[in-house]
Amino acid sequence: MSKRVVTLSALAGAALLAGAGAYAFAGEAGSTGPEVTKASAAYVAPTADKDGSLTFTARVSDDSGVRNLKVLAWPASMTPAPDAEDMAHVESATCEPSGRSGDKAALCTYTVKVTSAEAAESPKGAWHVGVLASAKDGGRTFAPKAAGFTVKG
Q1: Which of 23, 81, 116, 127 has the most CB atoms around it within 10 Å of its CB?
Q2: How many whole angstroms separate alpha carbon 109 and alpha carbon 71?
Q3: pTM as predicted
Q4: Alpha carbon distance 90, 68 (integer Å)
């Protein structure tokens, strides 16, 4: 199974979210990577006649500007947990400039459609949303648990 299929399957499973957390992450100590704040996940569960969705949003800022934000929802039971290198194989959020003029921040949003079949096949229990933020100057910040939620059975 390709990493892309695993990623989409993991994202699809988040449709049964019980709750979402909001967290702030900065780069590793001494790092010059972007700062990720106000991260949150929201969902609409699929119904018998309508697909659901998972939406992740975060504010990303860096002095040089924001290049992109990669997003991956993954079950907490997954071992090993994804790392920054795994994030190269996932899709990017759409990032739009935000804040006052001259502010090097972006509001990044990622939405994925979730079918009833995908939701039924997803692992139940705790989940995390990991992100990899990249700045225009090459700085990077990996936050494996930018948001958290529970998938109910």
Answers
A1: 127
A2: 9
A3: 0.78
A4: 12
